[in-house]
Amino acid sequence: MSTPYDIPEVLDRREGPYGEVVLRRHGGLLQIIANGCFLMDTSDGRSERLLVDAALAALDAADTRAGHGPRPDPRVLIGGLGVGFSLAHAAAAPRWGRITVVEREPAVIEWHRAGPLAELSARALADPRAEIVETDLVAYVHETSATFDALCLDIDNGPDWTVTEGNDGLYSAAGLQDCARVLTPGGVLAVWSARPSAEFEETLRNAGFQQVRTEEIPVARGVPDVVHLGIRPG
């Protein structure tokens, strides 16, 4: 016999600047759908947390290799607010000095500030270190004069499998050069992907990033999620 949980409940539907975005509840999960494509839900969050932790660990290791201790109050840029796991995890870590989140969908920001996703992010958004910038990430890293010690980017399914028009520019040589431009010397670029990409690793190296490596996040079934890491030279 079917149950009410078999059918997702649409909580909000918006026509945003990049198409339709939908927030729905499916059982105990909240889900974000963009232009009919499932993006993410609140089921786990391990990979989003690893994205932040791996960036901080790589930053500290790079500083140690450079002959000095971990830098105080590092600044992190999180690309993509999503369901808020990365923001909440970064805000729970006292090491971060400034946490900037870039999100281009106004509806997603509203769902966090005054909607159902506030249950995941309200404490983080109240943190004085945190700010949300409403803009496109690709444009932001190209235009901003701000600099960061770490970039944690999770705006699509990864470099080999983008579902949003324009996001592939972030993973190109030009996009990675923009990322390097806003990183401080010895800063870390961490990029989440739904599957490993040897081609993207090579693009990172060709863009000048050093100590390029990939960390895997085991999933229940299928190919592991990964975080691609690279260091901007000092």
From TrEMBL:
Keywords on record:
Polyamine biosynthesis
* InterPro entries found in the cross-reference section: SAM-dependent_MTases_sf
A Pfam family for this UniProt protein?
A: Spermine_synth
**Coiled coil start-end:** none
**Per its UniProt entry, which superkingdom is the organism in?**
Bacteria
This protein is called what? Spermidine synthase
**Organism name:** Streptomyces prasinus
